[in-house]
Please model this.
Amino acid sequence: MGFRDRRSAGRSNVVPYVPGEYSGDRHRRRLRANLDLESDAATAARSVGLHLKIFNDGHHWVFSAQSFVAEWWPSSAKLVINKQWNRGIHCHDWQQVLEEIEKKQRCNKGEAING
Model:
């Protein structure tokens, strides 16, 4: 049994919620939408000092820098930072992932973060 996400990054502008959509269809739509924007995600990651690698036909994204690693699974929207499985964050798109990573990095530098 896996760990439930501790919180959600909120609604996505990239992959909006569709009421009544079957969860399997939603997961496939989320994966496809994010893979279609893979180049934008890689560029944005580089601009904040992160390297992006994508594995398993797009199902596993890894954002890393030195001793930092954030793993994200677009289909399930699960983001795990530095292997802290019990502190997962529900992120629907790569933009939310980068926002959460930047929050975490600011927090680690001692800046006050809401949320």
